[in-house]
């Protein structure tokens, strides 16, 4: 019984003793493993510290190398005239050799070439233009849309009455310019030519457009131009950007020989006085017999947003209606023209305009209606009163795409003694869409509509569609 | 005649009502060897060599103003102007090093578009904006645009309209952001 009662206590004690012994050995094993782990961690930490120190040493060495490279680079002599664009530019977008030469040239005239052994610089430029057009009616100016050339009566198929296509390169142009310093002054010349000597045919015939020399600051503080250039009566800035080479019928656009003095009184104001050749007169019934040159006076104002030119011309119209005598009349004309840049969100669109009135100046206009008519019965020459105006608007759709719309009108007050076919009125309208994929290449399509009415009421109208490609250099 | 005039007015009104993009991107280039990086402290230089070397003070000011809006620390070349006219790269490098710039931003007017046969006036220019790493002066990004940034009349560049200039800068900034260089 006693044995039975004592046995559970003994068993429990034995179990407890065994457990105690076993747990002590387990604890000892854990401690050993922990020590080993700590040693591994410490080894790894030492390795990391060594690696970090190595990285720092390498970084310092790299910095030293960079500094050496920088010092070497700084030691390379720089060309002070070289703009930043030409430095370190990779081949993919590097400028052409010509562009580099132009950019490096110590001049304010890009694109020019120094003449060897001289201070003269020369520039050659121009464009090759192809115009293809289709007329729906009779007009005898295939390369230009001259509304006065619209046939009003007895129209024939040869004149295009049944429709006509013309392809022309006549307006292609070549231009030579030079500039030479002379003391504190500058001598410049320009010679330009195209192939539009005869507007009644599509054949290219060489024509001299300009040939002049100009000396700056030579007379009363102004420059002097001698040679052939646009008439001082013309405001080129106000010329709408039509694809049609001619432009609006009411545009004064004569080129002829002259002597012109110009002085800039203020950056926004200049004055021009010119004596121009008494040529290109258009007389009805009389032959031109010139005596005095045309006197032209113009004031030009050019601000950032507005261009304005006011011009006045005085002409001695002299001709011979009968072989034995010469008769004359005084011609005069006033022109107000300019460009107004559109404000606000419409920029950079611009509006161009021209208004001319006078008597005996018609030959200066694109449509060149008669300056004067000879009265056979009275043996006199009468200057014909002429009104001419146009407006144009250029809208930029994007920097590569624009549209120009124009309208122009020329009217003359006919005399009783003028013949029935005498010019009375022409109208010119145009609208185009022009794409300029590059600064050198221009494509465009233009629709033109023109009318002509004669004194006797004879009337003609023509639609023209024109395609133009122009590549400039 | 009245109907023709009315037609002209109608066409003008139609054109008047159409607003167009004023800056068109032609080409973008990013160096294959240099990854996108923030501008950091930036020096801005705007210049042209046509019709003659001129520094575009107004455009520089606009650039700095717009970059500041994007929290970029930017300064105009004119703030450190050494001489008159377009600076040489050596002059620029000295300023970059002396003031510890991170980036050089250059806007250059390359060429004008001259659609008129008889006058050189132009409203459209080809303009290029380039980014250089300042310490090495290494080009890593460029953008060519056709833009109404200029008004070229009678042989002179007139001050661009503020709206056109701002739109140009904003367009380039957007492209810079897309290219990961801002």
From TrEMBL, chain A:
It comes from the Bacteria. SUPFAM superfamilies: Porins. Residues 31-75 form a coiled coil. InterPro entries: DcaP. Keywords: Coiled coil. The keyword Coiled coil applies. It holds the Pfam family DcaP. This is DcaP family trimeric outer membrane transporter. It comes from Microbulbifer epialgicus.
Automatic annotation (TrEMBL), chain B:
This is Lipoprotein. It comes from the Bacteria. It comes from Microbulbifer epialgicus.
